[in-house]
Amino acid sequence: MTTILAIETSCDETAAAVIENGDTIRSNVVATQMESHARFGGVVPEIASRHHVEVVTAVVEEALEKANVTYQDLTAVAVTEGPGLVGALLVGIHAAKAIAFAHGLPLIGVHHIAGHIYANQLVAKLQFPLLALVVSGGHTELIYMEKDGHFQVIGQTRDDAVGEAYDKVARALALPYPGGPNVEQLADTAEAALDLPRSWLEKDSYDFSFSGLKSAVLNRLNNDKQRGIVTDRAALAKGFQESVVDVLVAKTVRAQAQFNVKQVVLAGGVAANKGLRKALTEAFANKDVTLLVPPLSLCTDNAAMIGACAHSMWLRGISGNMAMNARPGLPLSSF
Question: Is CB count within 10 Å lower at the N or C end of the chain?
C-alpha cells in the first residue's frame, strides 16, 4: 500500500492531499485565492506566491488531519514541479523538500498536466492506450498515451489556450473573473446563438486555434458599437461557446477513431464546462469507447491529481531529489 502526501501550488490554488494506492482520496484540501485576483481580472504572480507562503503549512496540516495520518505513515511526498508560475511553484517545492528531508521520505516531482490526466484515475482505472483532451487556462492539447507514463502530444494550441480565450472574451463582455464559468452562465440565458467561425486549420491537423474566434467576438462588439446597435451579449457568448465546443469535440472524435483507443479522458479546468461535458458524452454515447469525465472538484487545480500521478511514477521507480527546482516550462515528454 502507498500513502502519498501531494502538494500543488502551480498557480493560484494552494492544495494538499493524501492519496492511497493512487486511486483513493483520503483528503483533498484546496485554499483558493480567487477573490484576491478577481479585482485584477486575472492572476497576479507575486500575489499568488505570497498567498501560498501564508497558507501552505496550514493546508498540509489540514490534509494530514483529515486523512488521519502522520508523516510516519507516508510512503512519499509529491509536488508539482512544473509547468506553472515560477514563484508559486517554488513555494510548494520548498515545502515538499522540507517535509521529505525532515522525515526521510522520497520526493516525487510531478508534471502539472500529467496530474490533470491522472485525476481520472480517481474516477476509474485508466486503460491504455487512451486519448486525453486537456483543456485549461494555459493548455489545450490532445495527448495519446500508448502506455502508463507515455505521453505523445498529437495536437496543441497554436495561440490562445481555450481557458485563456474564455477569460479574454469575458473581459470583452464585461464579465468578472474567472471568465469560463461566467461566459457559460451568460450563454445559458440565450435562446439562440450568434453565428461565429470555427477554426479547423489544415484538414488532418489536430492543433487548435482560438485567437481568430476571440477576434471575431471583439469585432462584433466594436462593429455594433460603431453602428449604435446594442449587442445581444448572451447570444454572442452562446455563439462563442458553441464554436469552442464544436471544434474540441470534433477533433477528439476524429483522433479517437484514428488511434483506435477504447478510453477517452477529459482533463483540466475547462473540463468543468457543462456544455463540453454534455457534447462529449453525446458524441461517444453510441461508440465502443469509455469516456471518463472527472467530477468538478477534480477539474480545477487540486493536489489529489498530483498524488494519483505520483503513485504511477512511484510504481515505475521514478522519483526526484533535493536538487529539484521549479521548472515553469517543463515539457510533458519528460515524464
Answer: N
